[in-house]
Amino acid sequence: MGVVFIDQKDLRKKDIRFIDARFELGNSETGRQMYDAEHIEGAIYWDLERDLSDMTSDEGRHPMISKEKMTTLVQQAGLTLDDTIVIYDQGASPFALRAYFLLDWAGFTDIHVLREGYSELRNLLPVSEIAPSISATDTIPAWNDSIYVDMAGVRQIISGGQVGQLVDARSNIRFRGESEPLDKIAGHIPTAVNFDWEQLKADGKFLIQDALKEKLQLVSDPTKPVIAYCGSGVTAAPLYASLKEAGYENVKLYVGSYSDWIRENGIETN
User: Fold this and answer.
1) What residues of the chain score a pLDDT lower than 50?
2) Out of 11, 89, 150, 229, which could bridge 257 as a Cys pair, Cβ 3.0 to 4.6 Å?
3) What is the pLDDT of residue 218?
């Protein structure tokens, strides 16, 4: 996979497929309303909860979708595995990165996330209020299951059955169990270290590659697997992508994350 993040100044290719992933946690209608009001011409819309999560599952607050749902999503979007895809949201947000992870999982190889947000992009490209007419494809994903970790996989890592370092993307006070605004139990998954995903961005955009390398160089041994998680699997996606951007070669994401883990397992505080 090449560089994850792309700057608006680098959008020179004419046949880019754009995906609008704007969303607002706590107000699930806002993203679609923003898209309907105005979006990059030709962009399709993927909703965090309707498209990029399985909200019928109890495996966390924003559970992993099935392969069947992901296949339908990419086919209805008219995507092929060799498309150049650029995903955007409102900027310095986790929603485009969630879509990035799922496309990475599905075997797409030329996918990028805009470092800036929509407000900057709209000054560069034509915008529209009309959703594009898309011809469906029969694309079959080339699944990259090695980047997805479930509860059983995390248990293997904690027990020493598999090598890996868990990295918690939440704030330090949530990691230490001093405050927990969303989950019933405060703390973190045993053996995890903490890296607040908010450190990955500044001034409404994600950091450039060299800055990410500097920030993330001491998070883990880059020669062993590193597994990103957060509260619901959403804000772990920027950490997942940034670790890849920083040169970590074996990066995985526990989509169920802490909200899934505490259903059946113990925690630590410190």
Assistant:
1) 1
2) 229
3) 93
